[in-house]
Amino acid sequence: MKVVEFLETNSAKYEVTRHQPTYSAQQMAAAEHVSGREVAKPVLIKADDKYYMCVLPACCKVDMDALKENLGVDQVALAGEDEMSKLFADCELGAEPPFGNLYGLETLMDESLQADEHIVFQAGTHEQAIRMATLDYKELVNPRILSFSYLDR
């Protein structure tokens, strides 16, 4: 199910915008004229034998050691493109929305995203973005809130 259909089905308040194709969360932030801190970037990770969708600000990276500790697992690694294309067949590769629940994945949200009133994220394509209230996002996704990111310098 596409994210827009899910939002419509749940009567969520959101705004869809179009921009030139972007291929990174930071590029999308620039195209949407927002800070990278407001862009919710999904990162698919595999912890031991289970996949998780990690959602963090575009300007940050996943702290694998913090994630390992938070999840109580032995191994954490980024999922490969082949794994992503299988799990997110309805999305363009690299434009997945931060809704793990739509794909049978637990969503882990970095606590730093809670500081912003709104978040912006890819809508499944490289040309569309969705803006919605962070509280509404949290209500729809019910993510586990953890601290697992660091600023990418």
Major sheet size, sense and barrel closure: 5 strands, mixed
Kindly provide the name of the CATH class. Alpha Beta
What Rg, in angstroms, do the CA atoms define?
14 Å
**Which fold name is given in CATH as the topology?**
YbaK protein
Lateral strand order in the biggest sheet: 5-2-3-6-9
Taken from the alpha-carbon principal axes, the silhouette is globular
According to DSSP, the number of beta strands is 10
N-to-C series of helices and strands:
HEHEEEHEHEEEHEE
Q: Supply the number of helical segments.
A: 5
End-to-end CA span: 35 Å
- Low confidence ranges: none
Helix content: 10-25%
**Nearest-integer average pLDDT:** 94
Number of domains: 1
Q: What does this protein look like?
A:
- This protein is of the alpha+beta class.
- It has one domain (3-151): YbaK/aminoacyl-tRNA synthetase-associated domain (YbaK protein).
- The chain contains five helices and ten strands.
- The strands form three sheets. A five-stranded mixed sheet has the order 5-2-3-6-9. A three-stranded antiparallel sheet has the order 1-8-7. Strands 4-10 form a two-stranded antiparallel sheet.
- The N and C termini lie far apart (35 Å).
- The mean pLDDT is 94.
